[in-house]
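Usage

Read records sequentially. Each one opens with the input sequence:
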Amino acid sequence: MPITTAPELFDVAALPPSQLSTLLGQVYQGPLEPTPWSSLLEAIRQQLQASFVTLVLRTPASERPGLIVNASAYGPLLPGEPSYSEHYYAVCPFLDWPTDRIATADEVFGDDAWCAHAFYLQYLKPLDLRYILTSNMRTEAGVECALFVSREHAGRDYDAADKALIGILLPHLKRAVDLHSTLDVLESERGLYAGAIDRLLVGTLLLDESGQLMKSNAAAADLLAKQDGIHSRHNRLQAYCSVENRALQKAIQTTLAQHLTAASASCEVIALSRPGGEAPLSLLLRPIPLNYCADDRSRRPAVAVFIRDPLGSPQASRATLRKLFQLTATETEVALLMMDGLTLDEAATALGTSKNTVRAHLRGVFAKTGATRQALLVKTLLNSVVALA
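and closes with the structure output:
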């Protein structure tokens, strides 16, 4: 059966419009669920009176696990089920089926041949699964996935109405799988960028449209906990100095206004003094453009706050530093101490050696990095990829 949304499919499926609308809603809700499409698979299972519904989102391979979502009468996994990804997928007879073909195992193999098939005997029969309805899919973005619906031995094979229901849902499911793939890529990119920001010790905070704190990374949370120049009170940012606090609140309100006008290129900057008299914190506030309208009860990020502590040291990787500049182990330690702003005397004390020894190793670092003085060395190291590794 080719994948189509021809009018006759709706007649054959004979689903009330309200029920079909619910199923389609679950198709597009799937990418946002903690277990993708779990509600849809369970709805299909109940509608088709199946024991087990499986969505293969990523086919297993020797170098990677598969991404397989299950809904069954027993919960997400069948009792005693071995790893389908690691063993049984290798002998699955449905891998080479044409895409967009909806058919049952009995139709393709015949009753006797199917019941004698190794996949049925070794995997399905012990789990009391007899009738299989399946379709392989290839989305517009090239994602290959598959849907399986299984019934027990006491059930019956699938009829035209069952296939019509799957035929109606599959074009929408393929579009939703592409949405899920896009969201997955964006989440991976977000994680990489967030990790890089963390290693650079840049504090990041998100404020909602009322100016309340929504989210913070580890560096920002550490600064707020120390209350060293900035803290959170009743979920709102507060500065240590009252005069600077008024300036901070004004900057937040200005940025909130820019958020409503989608002025993403604008920014506010402010320096906040600290109780101990150390170098002040520097803050940059940017509006997050308002790209959609939502219910007033929804909390939406409106302001991004970036905080730099001049006393902080980026988390440099020793292995990356050594590999990038071909440094020895001791030269690496000297370079890291220079990045931390230590003098030769302080570095000698930290390493338990003499100042002359540190100076000798520092000359080696200069030669390998191309720096000619300590300030240029620090600039070279901080501007390299070392802190991002």
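Summary fields computed downstream for this record:
- The domain at 7-188 is CATH 3.30.450.80 (Beta-Lactamase).
- The first helix runs from residue 7 to 13.
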